[in-house]
Amino acid sequence: MDAIFTSFEMLGTTLIVPMAILGMIWGIFGGALPGISPSITMALLLPFTYTMDPISALVLLTSTYVGAEYGGSIPAILIRTPGTNASAATMIDGYEMKKKGKAGEALGISLQASSIGNFIGIFCVILLTGPLSQLALAFRPTTYFALGILGLSVIVSVSEGTLFKGLLAALIGLIIATIGTDPVTGVGRFTYGNADLLTGVPIILVMVGLFAVGEILEQIATRSDGSVVTDRVTRLKWPTWAIQKKTAKANFIGSAIGVFCGIMPGAGGTVASFMAYAEARRFSRTPQEFGKGSTEGVAAPEAANNADAGVGLIPLLSFGIPASNSTAVLLGGFLIHGLIPGPVLFSKDPTLLYGMFSGLLVASLALIPAAFLTLSASIWLVNRPKPYLMAFIGALVFSGAYSINNSVFDLGLVLAAGVLGFGMRFFGMPMLPTILGLVLGYMIEANYRRSLVISGGDNSIFLEDPIAVAFLGFAALFLVGSIIREVRDRKKKNRDMGVAA
Amino acid sequence: MDRDLISGLIGFALALVYLFAAADIPTSALGDSVGAAGFPHMLGYTMAAVSALFVAYRLWMLRAGAPRAVPSDDVFAQPARAFASAAGTVAICALFILIFEPLGYLPAIALLILGLCLYQGVRLDLRLVAIAVGGSFALWLLFAQLLAVRMPAGIFGELI
Predict the structure, then answer these.
(1) Which of B1, B2, B18, B33 best probes binding to A when mutated, by most A CB atoms within 10 angstroms?
(2) At how many degrees (to 10) do helices A386-405 and B79-103 cross?
(3) Which listed residue, A32, A195, B85, B86, has the most CB atoms within 10 A of its CB?
(4) pLDDT > 60? residue A231
(5) How far is CA A80 from the centre of its chain?
């Protein structure tokens, strides 16, 4: 409790408030740009956070995360192009409202629903992160090894594409993590005499390369459809009392589903928003309006994806395992400052995390005025020609990458990671397992070997730790479940094809 | 050709290269029972096995009449065009990296913006040049002045 009060005191003595507002605005702009996901928006900020104090850096990143989830709804409503994947469900009725000349109302409903979802999500994070992280105090090297394997298995199982692709993507990340000095003996591995590689491949540079440079390469290879916002007089309108009453149930349903999906590993905001849309229609008094400009159809998915974004922080803050691309980038923000999220951080420096929570609350409050003030700028940004935008993002990425170590070698690493990201997009491979493999590689190897040092090389030590056994059992269950699901889907597909023929 | 099959084959080739490279990892006198090369070997063999299984699975699926794997994204509907376009962008970025320190931050970034815009079909005119120079100056203000990052002065900086 003291930590919570301390964190509120910090609002006046640290840069939490300006960073929350800045992050929120940057997030809205990033989310509003189609093709620029919240994770890319956050990754672009990572180099700037090096020189900041940890709380300011973390508040900036998490506020960006929250802002981007709302920002995605702007182009979804105005030009029928979702700024983020999670805002695709908002597009269905949001754009229909826009066609009826109600774009301002749709944006207002989206804003209110986002705020409600945000607050509920953050409330859950504050409530659950502490107790969950206490569980991890009982962890030993064997448990951490098993936790790493479980984290990877979960993400591999729920990632897009087949299980094979998820596994290959995770292995790529684990392989990159082996570059550098060996964690136990200090022997250099795969460095080939290059001093820049002795400390390993910086996770931040790989993230920026995979997400941002990979996106630039893909976007430049794509022809733009040239959609622009023609309605320049759009003004955001806060929903009237009647609309607020009508959308209250949809907001509640959306937030509840967002919380549920946020807790479920890998479900993500996109699943949450479409589930919320379907459930809101099922429980609506006017389901016939869905798809034709329903206010509830805008509210439910927005509340869901914002609640999901907040709750998605729980696995990262409790156990140090990111459950999405955005939280993986946030983990990068922690690592930059030598912080490892999890129980140790919680007991050692709780004010840091509570400072982050209060920053999130400030950001959620700031969302409402920021959305009103930035709408014109967002529309201007959405209308910028893609070539200029991509060129500037490229310049920003390389400037940011250089600023970390003042090293040209880092620029090469970022470009190489971008090429890898482009290749993975081409082959339809998920990127989160790669990032997670890279992040967890050290933890898995170091704890595996530490365990064996303790046991004198006896692998049965993993069976003597009940939590580790449970984690490894769950990991196996996830993988087996994923195989069963794939086989079932394949059979269903074959059956459908047979019927169609 | 089936893209899943190709990704499996590439994965297998990568695993072999990785295992080959892992064979050169020196042994430390302080080594534990696993050793510095132990984990890379495990990863290499696992990757080879997963890739081989993936290739076998795809071949079996194709024989059973499954459609070829194509990305759901339209972006890569014309792979040759997409790869050629990406290769051009990579070449521009690689050139930028080469000239970054010798030429200095301001001109190198301006040239990067100019090059990427021209490559995407923007017409070369005064407006584009002004955007590239102005953008480069804005980023220099942000990084070199506001964030105090020491950016390379390059040949022009030395002349001044």
Answers:
(1) B33
(2) 50
(3) A32
(4) no
(5) 23
